[in-house]
Structures are given as C-alpha cells and as structure tokens.
Specification:
The complex is a heterodimer of chains A (about 500) and B (about 650). Chain A is an all-alpha fold and about 500 residues long. In chain A, about 75% of the residues lie in helices and about 0% in strands. The longest helix of chain A has about 30 residues, at about 155-185. The two termini of chain A are about 30 Å apart. Classes of the chains: A mainly alpha (about 500), B mainly alpha (about 650). Chains A and B meet through α6, α8, α9 and α11 of A and α24 and α25 of B.
Chain lengths: ~500, ~650
C-alpha cells in the first residue's frame, strides 16, 4: 500500500503516540520494580516526547490550515483541535502521574502505554463520521481506561472501580454497536451523513431506535445522567491524574464526536435533529440537577470532583442544545478552559500526596498554608469551575448561556445559572478547608512525622493551570475567534 | 510652568515615604522629608504663581491627558473628563496658602509631636492631607476636585482619630467623616445636575456656558445645582446644619486642628463657591440662602464660644463663626471679600491654634481655660503672637481681620441691614470670647500651680511659625485695603478675572454708595467695647463671670450645652434611624434575607442532595437499571 504525502501527514500525529505506546511495555517488563529511577524517568520522558511530537504535528497542521484525510479518518480543524486538546491533557496527566505514582509506590511503564493508546483512540473517535471507525475509536479509548482505572491493582477498591466501569462500559458499547447495526440494516450505509439523509426521508421506528442507541454510546462517555453512575466509582478508584484525564479528555473527545456526528451529520434535516436536540436538552437538564445536587452532599473531594465533572457535562451539552455556531464554539472554548481548571482541581490532590481514601475534605484542612502558591493556583481553578469572573470559567458559561437565551431556551439557561449557583458552595468549600480551618491534631502529628510531600511536576502543572485560567479569561475574545470558531469552519 | 504637577505630587511622595519607610528610618529622616516636601511644594507653587501672573489672561491650563471618556463626544450623555490642573488667581492664591501655611504647620508639628507615638504615621497623614487639598484646589474638573474633596474628608477622619486608643477620638473622627458624607451627597447631586444641564464637568466649560445665561428669576435647575453644591460646602466648611463635626474635631492633635481650620479643609467649601461664582450669581435664591446661612452660623457659633471652657473648643466655634462671615460675604455677592477673609483668617486662625497648642504643650496637655492663668511672662512669644492674632480676629484696624471683615459687613449692609446687624453682634461676641480667652490664659493668678511651675516656652520649631504667622496676621490686610479707606482693594482686582470668568456682571457691588466709613466705625467701636468687657470680666479670675452667669442661669446653660443641638440630633434623628436600622437588621436581614432567603434554600438544596445521593447505591446492577431507564427514555423521545 502506498500512502500519498497528505495521507502520511494525516497519520503522523497519531503515529508517534501509538509507536511509543507499543514500545513502552517492552521497556517496562520489570516486574519487581528494580529498575532505577533513571529508567523510570526515561519511560516518562519518552511518553512525554511522543505526546509532544503529536502536539507539534497537530499545531503544525493547524498553522498551515492543512486538512488532510485518509479514508474516513478526517484530520480537519475539529480533529486537530481534539488532538491538541487531548495531547495537552495527556502531557499534564503524565507530569502529575510521575508524582502521584511515586506517592502510591507504584511506578510501572504500562500506565503510560495505556494512556497513549487511549489518546490515539480519542483522536480517532473525534475525527470520523464512519460508524466502524467510530466504534474502533470508542473501544481504543475505552479499554485502556478500564485498565488504567484499576492501575493500583493491589488495592481492592481500585479493582472494584475498574470492574464497574468495565461492566457498564460494555453495556454502553454494545448499545452503540446495536445502534450501528440497526442503522446499517435499514440504510445500507456506514457513513453517518448518508444515514442521516435516509432517516430524514424515511423515519423507520427501528432505525430511529438505532439512532437513540448510538446517542447513548456518546452520552455514556460524556457521563450524562442517567448513564453517569460509573463516574464517581471509577474516578475514586483511578489515580488522581488518570481521573482528571478521563474527566477532561474522554468527555471532550466524546463531546466533539457527538458534535460531529449528530448536529453535524445526522440532524441536518429537521425531524431527526429536533428529536436529538430534545433528548439532549432533557438529559442535560437532568444532568445539571442531579450532578450538582449530588456533589453538594459529598464528603470526599474526589467524588465531589466526579459529580462536578458530571454537572459540567450538563453545561457542555447545553451548548449542543443551543446549536448555533457561537454556542458550539463556546462549548469548545469551555472545553479548553475545563481542561485547565479540572486538571488543576485533580492536581490539588496529587500535590499534597493524598493517596488512597485520604481524599476527604478533612484531609485537606489547613494544607493551603503549606504550599500557598499551588494552593492559590488550585483556588483559581475552583473559582473558574464555579464560574466566577474574571476567570475563564465564567466566560465559557456566559457564552453558552447567552446563546441559549438567544435561541429561546430561557428556562434551560436559568437552570444552568441556578445550578452553577449551587456549585459555588462545594467549590468554595475546598478553599475554606484549605485556608480557613486548622488541621486536626492527629493529622498535624502525622504530617510532622511523615517526610514532606515532594511533588515538583504536579506543582508546576497546577501553577500552569492557574495561570491559564486567568489568561484565558483575559484573552477570551481572541481564543473564541482564532481558535474555537475556526475549529468549526472546516466541517460546516 | 511644566513642573506644576510637582505641587500635589511632592506631598504624595512624602506621604509614601513616611508611611512606608518612616518607622525604619527614624524620626529625624521622617521630619526632614515630610517638612521638606511641603516647603519644596511651596517653592514650586511660588514659581508657578509668578508664571501664572505673567501668563496671558492670568491663567495656566495644564492638561495631562484624559481621565474618563464615556460615549461619543458631541452626542448627548457623553462625558469626557480631562486630567488637568488649572492655576489662576483664585487657585494660585489658595495653593500658596495651603502649601505656605501647611509648611509652617508641618514645621511646628515636628516640635509638638516629637514625643508622640506614631510620629511617622502622623506625618504620612499630614502630607496626604496636603496632597488631597492641592488636588481639590488645582483640579480642572469637578470630578478631580471631588477626589480631593473626598480625600480631605478621609484624611480628616484619620487625623482626628489619631489618638485611636482613646474613647473620644475615633468617635470624633467618625462624626466628622459621616457628617461630611451628608454634604458629599449634596455635592455629588449638584455635580449630576450640572452635568445634566451643561453636558460637561470641566469647570472652565461650565463657566464659559454659564456666561451666556441670564440670572434665574425663579428657582430652576441652576438654583437646584448651586444649592446642592452649597449643601456640600456646608459639610466641609461647617455651616448650619452640618457644623457639628468641627468642634469635636478638636480631638486630634492641635497642629491638625490648625491645619484643618486654617489652611485646608474648612476653606474647601468657600473655595468651591468662589470657583463656581459665576454660576451662583445666576441664582438669587441660592445667594440668599448662602448669605442668611452664613450670618446665622456666624452669630450662633459665636454665642456658643462665649462660655466654653476648653481653649480649643472656643477656637473651634470661633472658626465656625468666621466661616459664617465668609459665606455671608459670598452670599452678598462679595466673592472677593469672602475669599479675602479666607486668606486673612488662614493667618490668624493658624496662629491662634498654634499658640493654643504652645500653651497646651507647655502645660502638659491641659486644655481647660479655668485651670490656666498668669502665663503672660512664662510664655512671652506665645503671648505676644496670640495677642496680635486676637487683635486681628476682632477686627481692630490696621490688623488683617479688620479689612476683610469690614468689607464683608459693608457688602452685607448693601444686601440687607439686618444681615449687617447680625454680623456686628457676632463680631462683638467674637471680640468678647477672644479677650475672655486671652485674659483667662495669660492674666490673673495661676489656677493650677503645679502646671504653672513647670510651664516653659516651646522650642524654635514651634515659635518660629508663630512669629511668621504673626507677621502675616498683622500685615496681611494691606493686600486688600478697601476703597473706602483709600485703598484699591488690590486682592479683589487681582482675583476678579478668576471669579467673574470674563463676565460682565461684577462679582462684587459698587463701592461708592453707602456710609462705608461710618459703618466701620460703629462695628469697630462696638467690638472694642465687647473686648473690654470680656477682658475686665475675666482678668482677675472667675468670680465676676460666675456672678453674671448666675443672674441668667437659663441662657448660660443653653450656651454651655451648645443649644443642645447634639442632644437633639441624637434624640430626634439618630435614635429613630438606629431603631429603623435595627429593625432592618434583625427582621429584614437576619430573619428574612439570611433565614428565609439564603439559609432555607440552602438547607433545602442540601436535603435534595442527600436524597439524590441515595440513588448512588454502589451496585452495578442498579447502574445498569438506570441505563435501562435511560434507553427507554431515549427510545420514547425518538419514537414519539
């Protein structure tokens, strides 16, 4: 098989992460962890380098305005946006993972390999409208994540969480596949564009059911209610950086894929589009209410962040409901902001070396004064998650709500505002325990005996996230026009 | 004069220096820098002043950029405020008074405050005060003037409450601040009214537009705007009804009293009226209000001053009363005369306060007149300089107060003989309480022998300013000898372009009508009589005065308690307000807003949260069930 130059360019960004993912386990065949720190460092460096190369190629394509494709894999602007988004998240996760796995005492190369495979799967998932490729991407991103969730496999809770994720994920994947089969059976095509046109001409009930099942596959990855219940368990089980990565990259890739497949292709015609929009609107509302209310009553910060990521799925889906180009761009902008603020929020747990089940609010008491800089950066991320100006999180929500009101969905916008009002409580509570409450006596003694937590890379990522949250807030009009809106102009 | 911006900036730098580094670098460095910057500002101001005199039109417009710009210029509602300074005869004279007398007070403070805690803090505030006052005086637009206006309010709060460990000083500071806020509200409303009418807030532009208008025949928008500005002025310049803060402001260190009373804060109101003089001339209603308020305040405060025991309180009521004279002059269209009185008053009132400070300093913080006495030979410099100031304030020719006060009374007579009569009675009271003060302090037997034994003349940093101020008090009047006495009212001629802003209707009336000399003789003669009465009543102690007071116990009690104004405000104004505030707090805020409005929804939301978390059972089969419901819902939506 001979590839043209443009086909090579389309593959290159994915080639290096995939290659590194294949090579890393070979180097990591070291079951008793006898490898020196030097080798471990090299493994992480290779992974980081592969992610960096991929980032480099994606940004190169973006800068040239070149949109190659190979078969049904289209490296258009939206796919490039996804690539950049996923690779940045992966880089932050890898840096945090180095510190976190050391705290856990569990440094293996296989985590990196799985992470990289998942990255490749995400980009594939978000850059095609062919049902087979979509399924391939979905599985490629999911299966490594099941394993990653159970990374620290000596801990029962980790295995339990991974298994729960796997079981529910298998249900969702089979639904997706069933939907694809139904659609293919009735329309005779695997291309979503063709399917959409056929469905709008002739809305067969079983084919419509197929579309509904297909939608479920996406909503599961986005963790929208009622396909969300795996989320808190899986996130709690996973290492903090992996939880952060899942909440950001998986959700982002699935949302962008949804954006491409449903409003972009399936719902061009009115009857089907209205149904999809209706379904998304109802589920988004349920997601907002349930996610925020559940987050409110958590005592575990990590579970709170899991519910927070569910509620953010609600905000992001609202962008799809509005459906205007500005709303979709606002969704992409909010995704990018969400990347920074959520990686920062999960990074907070890593920075203070809170492993296992020591991730309750009480375990954070008074820690802010130990490393005020990073705690401040994490606080900025929390402010941004709560949507308080002038942080970028405010502008993201603002753009989405504005478009919602513009398209007549005032009730949904109001619900979104109320939901973010509720969320202020649990986000700010993190800052309250960090800075305003004294450590418990036992905890203080424990901290006095234990060696100081060493987390240079996680600390650095946190500072970067805090900085980005402010910066993106300051230059949001430019990000919106030069980045988010241009990501959409390719497939429109 | 490119360097005019240095005039306000120098004290600001001094403030930053004393505030940030003063404690580390010690008292001497603080003193040298703080006093130095104000003297330097005075020198720059002097150079600027002469540059202004040489400039065409006797006016320097210094523009440093645009401060605020809203809307498209030229369209209705557009606002553009320049960032600039204006030096003309009015602001030029004022800036010389502020920096000149301010510098002397700074120098005096070095001696007075040397032993006090928080030396650097004191000088930091003092420099900041001068900075804001200069901003007020030199600002070319009302918003910039307002910045200085608010700033001196803030600084007065800080300085009056300087002894913040005591019970009374913070309260007095708060009282000054809050009372001023009432006035500030008027000022702000006045500015809005002016903007609504003229579409600009630049002083020059407003006055230029006002030049094309003819005086209002009834109470209109101009009347309203000027009246509101006057409300602001009553706050800063302590006129009825907002005068109550000034006597309490004596809680601050004595040099601060001198600074507030003589050179800076209280003259701000007069300055504002002079600045906007052409506008006030367009509203006869406001002018009447100004004149009558001034006259009433002049008499009212002077009568209270007759019986006060605290030496600084006497001087405080004296200031309120003298400010009343100034407003009386302004209200009688004698803007130049009123401002001339600001000028002369700055000298002799600063001198009186600094002299009183010297006495208090010598007696180790004794302020009670009834415990002084016989200090004439102990404090010779203080005595002789205060004597000059007393002669000046009672208006004895040829001391400075005579010329300015006489000009005001003469113009008041032209407006209404009743105003003149009130002014003369007030002047008699002035002469009486000043000679009472002098007699109780310097003559008679010492009533506190212990303090008397230890009394000593103050150091040179304190006596030098006294000497300079005495010179000014004695001779300052010759800058403006009225025409009735063979002079040319030079200061009036000099100020005229700034006050009239090139308009035809003059800022003060004609000088050829009326029995000017006769009136002056009458008022001076009555004043002399009152002075003698005051002197002989108190020269040999308190016995005669007490006998007199016992014959009119009711009047004495009313005067001693300052007409019970504070009590009336407390009872009829503050208590209902406090009751209403309590109601809003306990019922409105605690129960309705905090309870029903905030905590109840919060609690309900938490309960809802606890309820929905029950859905998260931790069992995978329930999760799958949930997904099953989801599939059904999706199918229903799609197949519907």
């Amino acid at each position: 098989m001979k590839l043209s130059a443009s086909e090579i360019q389309a593959l290159l960004p994915l080639f290096f992460p995939a290659l590194a993912a294949c090579l890393l386990p070979i180097a990591a065949l070291d079951r008793d962890q006898k490898s020196t720190k030097w080798i471990r460092g090299a493994l992480f460096a290779v992974a980081l380098f592969a992610v960096g190369l991929s980032f480099h190629y994606f940004t190169g394509l973006w800068a040239q305005g070149f949109q190659p494709s190979i078969g049904h894999l289209r490296m258009d602007r939206l796919a490039q946006f996804t690539g950049i988004f996923v690779m940045v998240a992966a880089a932050l996760a890898i840096l945090q993972l180095w510190d976190h796995l050391h705290h856990e005492g569990w440094v293996r190369g296989e985590s990196l390999s799985l992470l990289l495979f998942s990255c490749v799967g995400m980009v594939v998932f978000a850059s095609t409208s062919h049902l087979l490729l979509l399924f391939l991407g979905l599985e490629l991103l999911s299966i490594p994540l099941y394993a990653l969730t159970a990374t620290v496999r000596t801990r029962p809770q980790a295995v339990e969480g991974g298994l729960k994720y796997f079981l529910t994920g298998a249900v969702a994947a089979s639904c997706f596949l069933m939907g694809a089969v139904l659609l293919y059976g009735f329309t005779g095509s695997l291309d979503v564009g063709v399917i959409g046109a056929a469905l709008n001409r002739n809305p067969e009930p079983l084919a419509l059911l197929g579309a509904a099942l297909l939608l479920l596959g996406f909503l599961f990855k986005i963790s929208a209610v009622p396909f969300h219940q795996w989320t808190p368990d899986a996130y709690e089980a996973a290492p903090h950086p992996i939880a952060g990565f899942m909440s950001v990259a998986t959700k982002g890739a699935a949302l962008i894929a949804l954006l491409r497949v449903f409003p972009g292709a399936l719902s061009m015609g009115e009857p089907l589009g209205a149904k999809v929009r209706m379904a998304v609107a109802i589920l988004a509302a349920a997601t907002l209410v349930l996610g925020n209310l559940s987050a409110l009553s958590q005592t575990n910060v990590k579970r709170m962040l899991a519910y927070s990521s569910i509620s953010h799925a609600g905000y992001l889906l609202l962008g799809l409901v509005a459906g205007t180009p500005n709303a979709q761009a606002g969704m992409l902008f909010y995704l990018a902001v969400y990347l920074a603020m959520n990686m920062g929020a999960f990074g907070l747990l890593t920075v203070f070396g809170l492993v296992g089940d020591r991730t309750h609010y009480d375990d954070l008491r008074g820690l802010g004064w130990k490393r005020p800089g990073v705690a401040l950066a994490a606080s900025l991320c929390m402010f941004s998650l709560a949507g308080i100006p002038p942080t970028a999180g405010f502008y993201g929500k603002y753009m989405i709500f504005k478009e919602l009101i513009g398209t007549g969905h005032v009730g949904l916008a109001l619900l979104g505002v109320l939901a973010s009002l509720v969320s202020v409580y649990y986000y700010l509570r993190v800052m309250v325990v960090l800075f305003m409450e004294a450590p418990r006596p036992g905890q203080a003694r424990e901290a006095g005996e234990a060696p100081a937590v060493h987390a240079p890379f996680a600390g650095a990522t946190l500072l970067v996230c805090g900085f980005l949250v402010i910066l993106a807030g300051l230059i949001h009009p430019r990000l919106m026009n030069d980045f988010a809106l241009r990501a959409l102009d390719a497939f429109r | 004069m490119k360097l005019a911006w240095l005039i306000p900036i120098l004290p600001l730098l001094g403030c930053a220096f004393s505030g940030l580094l003063g404690r580390r670098l010690g008292k001497l460095a603080t003193a040298v820098v703080s006093v130095g910057v104000v003297f330097a500002a005075f020198l720059v101001a002097l150079a600027t002043f002469f540059a202004m005199k040489a400039a065409p039109g006797q006016r320097l417009d210094l523009l440093y950029g645009t401060w605020m710009a809203v809307g498209t210029p030229g369209t209705p509602g557009a606002l553009s405020v320049p960032f600039g300074l204006v030096v003309d005869p009015l602001s030029g004279t004022m800036m010389l008074v502020v920096t000149g007398i301010g510098a002397l007070i700074h120098l005096y403070s070095v001696g007075y405050m040397w032993e006090e805690e928080g030396f650097a803090r004191y000088f930091s505030y003092l420099n900041l005060f001068v900075f804001f006052m200069l901003t007020l005086v030199l600002g070319s637009s009302l918003p910039l003037l307002f910045v200085g206006w608010e700033g001196v309010g803030l600084c007065s709060y800080l300085l009056i409450g300087y002894y913040f460990e005591t019970d009374y000083a913070p309260d007095a500071g708060l009282k000054a601040f809050l009372t001023n806020r009432v006035g500030d509200l008027g000022m702000a409303v006045g500015m809005m009214a002016l903007f609504a009418h003229f579409g600009t807030l630049t002083v020059g532009d407003i006055l230029a537009q006002a030049g094309h208008l003819s005086p209002e025949t009834s109470f209109g928008i101009l009347g309203f705007a000027t009246l509101m500005l006057f409300v602001g002025a009553t706050g800063k310049s302590a006129q009825i009804p907002l005068y109550v803060w000034l006597p309490d402001a004596m809680a601050g260190p004595t040099p601060v009293s001198a600074l507030i009373h003589a050179a800076t804060m209280v003259t701000a109101g007069i300055f504002l009226l002079c600045r906007m003089a052409p506008l006030f001339l367009l509203s006869p209603v406001t002018m009447n209000v100004v004149a009558w308020t001034g006259a009433a305040t002049a008499l009212f405060a002077a009568t209270i001053g007759l019986v006060q025991r605290d030496i600084k309180k006497v001087l405080a009521y004296s200031t309120v009363s003298q400010l009343g004279y100034m407003f009386l002059g302004l209200g009688a269209a004698g803007f130049a005369a009123g401002f001339f009185h600001v000028f002369t008053h700055a000298w002799f009132k600063a001198l009186l306060f600094l002299g009183a400070g010297s006495v208090i300093h010598a007696l180790h913080h004794e302020q009670d007149l009834f415990r002084m006495g016989g200090l004439k030979d102990k404090l010779p410099i203080t005595f002789w300089t205060m004597l000059i100031a007393t002669l000046a304030i009672m208006g004895l020719p040829p001391f400075s107060g005579f010329f300015s006060k006489d000009e005001i009374l003469y113009l008041a007579f032209l407006k209404s003989p009743w105003l003149w009569a009130i002014g003369v009675v007030g002047a008699c009271c002035t002469a009486f309480y000043m000679w009472r003060l002098m007699a109780l302090t310097f003559w008679g037997e010492p009533r506190d022998h212990h303090a008397f034994e230890h009394a000593h003349e103050s150091p040179w940093q304190m006596t030098l300013p006294l000497g300079i101020l005495a010179l000014g008090s004695a001779l300052g009047g010759f800058l403006g000898v009225p025409e009735a006495f063979g002079g040319h009212f030079a200061i009036g001629k000099f100020l005229e372009p700034a006050l009239t802003f090139g308009q035809t209707h003059g800022a003060h009336g004609g000088h050829h009508a009326g029995p000017a000399v006769l009136l002056a003789v009458i008022s001076t003669g009555l004043g002399l009589a009152a002075a003698l009465a005051g002197f002989f009543l108190y020269k040999d102690g308190l016995a005669r005065a007490e006998a007199l007071a016992a014959r009119v116990p009711g009047l004495h009690l009313v005067l001693l308690n300052k007409y019970f104004v504070d009590e009336a405000i407390e009872g009829y104004l503050l208590r209902p307000f406090r009751w209403f505030g309590n109601l809003l707090w306990k019922l409105g805020d605690v129960i309705l807003i905090d309870g029903v409005g905030v905590n109840l929804p919060g609690a309900l939301t938490r309960v809802a949260g606890d309820f929905v978390s029950l859905l998260q059972t931790g069992r995978v089969r329930n999760y799958a069930l949930g997904m099953g419901f989801g599939i059904l819902a999706l199918a229903w939506i799609f197949l519907k």
